[in-house]
Amino acid sequence: MAGHKIFTMSFSKVYPLYVQKAERKSRTKAEVDEIISWLTGYSQVELESQLEKQIDFDGFFAQAPAIHPNVSQIKGLVCGVRVEDVEDPLMQKIRFLDKLIDELAKGRSMEKILR
Predict the structure, then answer these.
(1) Listed residue (109, 94, 113) closest to 7, CA to CA
(2) Architecture of domain 5-108 in CATH?
(3) How far apart are CA 79 and CA 19, in angstroms?
(4) Quick one: pLDDT at residue 1?
(5) pLDDT tens digits along 22-60
(6) Beta carbons of 66 and 41 less than 8 angstroms apart
(7) With bands split at pLDDT 50, 70 and 90, how would you rate the model's confidence at 115?
(8) Would you say 94 and 57 are in contact if contact means Cβ atoms under 8 Å apart?
(9) Alpha helix positions (H), the chain
(10) Distances from the Cα of 18 to the Cαs of 14, 26, 74, in angstroms?
């Protein structure tokens, strides 16, 4: 998966899609932000700063203060691919985020999402 086009895609262009997906299922932008902060360690101010910079996914995860130690507990399928089996570390982080947003949109409680 090296060089996949999502690596260089601007995180700020995908972020509104995460929010839209959540809001279509009566969830909130604040919950999306909480998930992103849990996964990456970004504070709300740091997250907003990254969105303003229009940084790509590679930079977004490379600059993340701390990937949560419980990410290994994130399991399941995203687009037919098991997130725990993704070999490329960056793609796996992207898939972890996708999986958490999917769980939010499916109505799972924040306590269960944030393992």
Answers:
(1) 94
(2) Orthogonal Bundle (1.10)
(3) 19
(4) 44
(5) 999 999 999 999 999 999 999 999 999 999 998 999 999
(6) yes
(7) confident
(8) yes
(9) 11-24, 29-40, 44-53, 57-62, 89-105, 110-113
(10) 7, 13, 18
- Alpha carbons within 13 angstroms on the beta-carbon side of residue 77 total 3
Taking alpha carbons only, the member of 89, 83, 80 closest to residue 61 is 89
Give how far Cα 46 sits from Cα of 41, 56, 92, 105, Å. Answer: 9, 15, 22, 24
Query: Residue 53 to residues 11, 48, 56, 59: CA-CA distances in angstroms?
Result: 9, 9, 9, 10
Predicted TM-score (pTM) of the model is: 0.91
Split at pLDDT 50, 70, 90, the class of 4 is confident
Domain boundaries, the chain: 5-108
